Amino acid sequence: MPTPSFLDLRGRRFGLLDFGGDGVPLIALHGTFGRASTFFATASYLAPEFRTVALDQRGHGLSDHGGDLGSDAFVDDAVALLEHLDQGPALLLGHSMGGVVAYRLAARRPDLVRALVIEDVGSVTDASELEHPVFDVTEWPRSFPDRNALADFLAGQGVPALGYFMDSAHESGGRWRLRFDHEDMMAVQHGNTGDFRADWAASAHPALLLRGGNSPLLSRGRAEEMVRARPGTRLRELAGCGHWVHLDDPRGHAEQVRTFLREVLDTPL
After folding, report:
1. Distances (CA, A) of 204 to 75, 78, 102, 227, 230
2. CA nearest neighbour of 96 among 10, 216, 228, 199
């Protein structure tokens, strides 16, 4: 894992993981409760052809917590990151909430985007589409005596991707905690639920929509509707995967991403 670096964007401090190399940059945006480190396997499988640069989004990981946690704020952060990197139109990979950020950014600032990889998130993310759009963490304890106790608690809550959450585990003051504020995570979830169909259809960049075959958060019907609503979008489903496709099948996920991005880069702008 690379050593995190830090940068200031829009008056906030953000953690950043640059997985390095001389490959084509790929900017990666994680989902709610996640961190930039969730893309470690993705970056490893895509290297050296692609150089993955992943942001700890606001309220997550080593980035500043609190403040505005609505969807527009996340989009504005990603815009600021791309402007800071100043490497031309970007290849964007977004998982879950990060995918919403990516396609909303493409709708607002098409000049900053070359192509989109959207991992297992729909164009509608509220209760009209999902049975449980918000995962309630308000009653979770804030600290634990050791790492195992934290992991045992999360497992007992039925967390479907234990490693994803444990990426945020750290020791502080002799206790183990998660690198996010629980109230922040509730605000992030509520701020990033909604009907984003207009944003999804508003851009024309090449897009790869990845769906886990067992995903509870992106139905096949919704995914197929998204393809119909947006020319230039292709759908790929990875059998046996849930919502965290990049963790359930990191090699298969990377192969789909690599194949798509190669085709994009072979096509003149």
Report:
1. 18, 19, 13, 12, 7
2. 216
Alpha-carbon separation of residue 245 from 52, 71, 139, 189, 193 (angstroms): 17, 23, 28, 20, 20
Identify which of 256, 188, 154 has the alpha carbon closest to the alpha carbon of residue 30.
188
- Beta strands at 90-95 and 50-55: parallel, antiparallel or unpaired: unpaired
Per DSSP, 231 falls in state: T
Q: What is the chain's length?
A: 269
Q: Which amino acid is at 43?
A: A
**Alpha carbon distance 217, 156 (integer Å):** 21
What stretch of H or E contains 184? Answer: helix 182-191
User: Taking the model in full, what pTM does it have?
Assistant: 0.97
What pLDDT sits at residue 228?
98
Question: What is the chain's mean pLDDT, rounded?
Answer: 97
- Euclidean distance between the first and the last CA atom of the chain, given in angstroms as a whole number: 33
Measured CA to CA, the distance from residue 24 to residue 241 in angstroms comes to 27
Secondary structure letter of residue 12 according to DSSP: E
Q: Which residues pair with 126 in a beta bridge?
A: none
Mapping DSSP onto H, E and C, the string for 13-81 reads: EEEEEECCCCCEEEEEECCCCCCHHHHHHHHHHHCCCEEEEEECCCCCCCCCCCCCCCHHHHHHHHHHH
Query: What's the pLDDT score for residue 160?
Result: 87
As a 3-state breakdown, the chain gives helix, strand, coil percent values, each rounded to 5, of: 40, 20, 40
